[in-house]
Amino acid sequence: MPTIQSILDRKGTDVATIRHDASVLDAAGVMNERHIGAVVVVNGDRVVGIFTERDILCRVVAEQRAPSDTIVESVMTSPMAVCRRDTTIAECRAMMTTKRIRHLPVVEEGMLYGIISAGDILAREVVDQQATIEYLQDYLYGRT
After folding, report:
1. Which of 85, 132, 135, 144 pairs as cysteine with 5 (C-beta 3.0–4.6 A)?
2. What is the pLDDT of residues 88-116, one digit of tens each?
3. pTM assigned to the model
4. Is 144 helix (H, G, I), strand (E, B) or coil?
């Protein structure tokens, strides 16, 4: 079974992070600038949570908090779901579906190795399915 490491090998291990004591406005700026839906929240080298678009909507906007006066730590999701590099893609897909989340940080022994999104999993599965289709067509009809 393919693992999360195969996705990280393709997309890389760059992860947008934000300090736990940063403002929501700063976090939203990073997310906007990088066109992403989540940032991993850190305290020094330690991963302490995740801050997502849903957190902004439910915990900041809906509660009428001022983004410039609200710190990320007070509205982030923690504890958060994580996976390891050797977790299978199928396990991650199931976890994301069950927990209704779109981002999974890849964490081992407190170290952040990357992040995967539902889109990353979908893209990988499309490639795998296309390869299967091509293999079956070659098997049934011979190479063209």
Report:
1. 85
2. 999 999 999 999 999 999 999 888 999 99
3. 0.85
4. coil
